[in-house]
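Input/output pair, single chain:
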Amino acid sequence: MVTGRSWLVGLGFRTPRGRLVRHFYVVDGMADPERAHEAALERANDPSERAAHANLRLDDSCVEMRRVSRDALGTWRLCVPSPCTA
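Output:
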């Protein structure tokens, strides 16, 4: 379920050849972006999640954060992405 305190967190992973691949996690119930980032990292480091994307190396040099919201008419919206943060 997505609430007013939901975030879309984009984390980067490196392939064996060095290409950056971004995986996105929807994190619900976090009041601020720092906690959402921590929750996404925890999820990304879960052994089953790592196995699902071939144990790619996490590259946290650029994290994309977007707040997910729903307006009064029920339309889903993503806020403008945050600048890359390490």
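The chain has a mean pLDDT of 87. The beta strands are 6-14, 20-27, 57-70, 76-78.
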